[in-house]
Design brief:
The chain has helices at 50-64, 114-126, 128-135, 148-151, 163-171, 178-193, 201-210, 212-223, 231-242, 248-259, 274-287, 293-299, 336-348, and strands spanning 88-93, 98-102, 108-109, 245-246, 304-306, 311-316, 320-325. The strands form 2 sheets. Strands 2-1-7-6-5 form a 5-stranded antiparallel sheet, sandwiched between helices. A two-stranded antiparallel ribbon has the order 3-4. The chain starts with 49 loop residues before the first helix and ends in an 11-residue tail after the last helix. It is built from 13 helices and 7 strands. It is α+β, with helices and mostly antiparallel strands and 359 residues long. The chain has one domain: DD-peptidase/beta-lactamase superfamily (Beta-lactamase). It is 40% helix and 8% strand.
């Protein structure tokens, strides 16, 4: 095992051109004693009865299975081989009931969806205040792999769900060696899924050959003092977490763990605290779909996270989680079928957090 060398964290790079950088945004006041929720209740309400859930998932699958819009990601060679016809839906309730249709058991690499769950593990270890201050929670309004977002914000990361913030988050994972850090991530994401996840070595090798931009982002963060480890090892660790294999059923279970306040509804294992679930869902709501997050929240009304392999996971706190898988993506890197199916089911199953009726 290789011990990872730590470096001092400078307050600001000496050669950072202040004239071209924005200062850190105005701090939003927060009180440490209000971090923990008053109870384990995350939200209110229940899913419709099981027959209705099954009926609506089946209807949604048939409605969108033949949609031909979008394009399969090809900047990672291994992802370009995906079949554009693959389409799966899965919903796991907070009580542990599963409903799946189509290619819901077909494995694919988790990609950027891993960011949300690694963030959860880091918040569990370091706490709400420290991670918020070091990583940020605000939307960049720019693409997920933007370098400009770092430069425009004084060298800071803005949130953990864009690549810069995800790299910084991964660097905070506990462990004195690369292997210890990887074991922590692997074990943690496996607990969310309810079983041990495997690595797609071919995807990992393909990404390592093409992740020049992430290596550049990591080095830029190092220059501003936001990564205290070797940036190349951080990039390798991040790339490996993105190469874990999941299915739509796995993603629905991972999301349902957050919906149930951190308890995996399939295994009963307490993965993270309820306050951590709340923090993660808040960040997913505002940043999970990158620069389209506002549109997503307006149209769908649920915290969500997408990945370039075609997965989307969304969470209805206290109710459960819906996951979709379909490789063709829109211009923002989000699954076309997945967006349409999720929007439809949010409406039909009463999952939108902002919908209410007078009783």
């Amino acid at each position: 095992m290789t011990t990872l060398p730590e470096q001092a964290l400078p307050e600001r790079a000496a050669d950072a051109p202040r004239s071209t950088l924005l200062e850190h945004p105005t701090e939003f006041p927060h009180e440490p004693d209000l971090v923990a929720p008053d109870s384990r209740v995350v939200s209110t309400g229940n899913l419709p009865d099981q027959a209705r859930v099954r009926e609506m998932l089946s209807e949604t699958y048939e409605r969108y299975r033949d949609v031909q819009d979008g394009r399969v990601a090809d900047y990672i060679p291994a992802l370009a081989e995906a079949d554009s016809g693959w389409f799966g839906l899965s919903l796991t309730s907070a009580t542990g009931h599963r409903f799946s249709f189509g290619d819901a058991q077909l494995p694919f690499s988790i990609q950027s969806i891993s960011k949300a769950f690694v963030y959860a593990l880091v918040v569990q270890e370091l706490g709400h205040v420290e991670v918020r201050e070091r990583i940020g929670v605000n939307n960049t309004g720019l693409p997920f792999n933007s370098v400009m977002a770092i430069e425009l914000n004084g060298g800071r990361t803005m949130n953990p769900l864009v690549n810069a913030g995800a790299l910084a988050t991964t660097s905070l994972v506990p462990g004195t060696t690369w292997d210890e850090k990887w074991d922590f991530i692997h074990a943690g994401l496996s607990k969310f899924a309810g079983h041990e996840l495997e690595i797609d070595e071919r995807v990992y090798e393909s990404e390592m050959e093409t992740n020049t931009r992430n290596r550049g982002i990591a080095r830029l963060l190092e220059s501003y003092g936001h990564i205290s480890l070797d940036p190349m090892q951080v990039t390798e660790l991040y790339t490996r977490q993105c190469s874990l294999l999941v299915t739509a059923e796995d993603l629905a279970t991972m999301g349902a763990t957050l919906a149930d306040g951190g308890d995996c509804p399939i295994t009963g294992i307490d993965v993270v605290d309820p306050s951590v679930s709340r923090d993660v869902l808040s960040v997913m709501a505002t940043n999970g779909m990158y620069e389209a997050s506002g549109d997503w929240l307006f149209e769908v009304g649920m915290p969500g996270k997408s990945g370039v392999s075609g997965g989307i996971v969304t969470i209805a706190p206290g109710k459960g989680s819906l996951a979709t898988f379909s490789p063709p993506l829109d211009a923002a890197g989000n699954s076309v079928r997945g967006i349409r199916a999720t929007r439809h089911l949010s409406n039909k199953l009463g999952l939108n957090l902002f919908a209410s009726t007078v009783q």
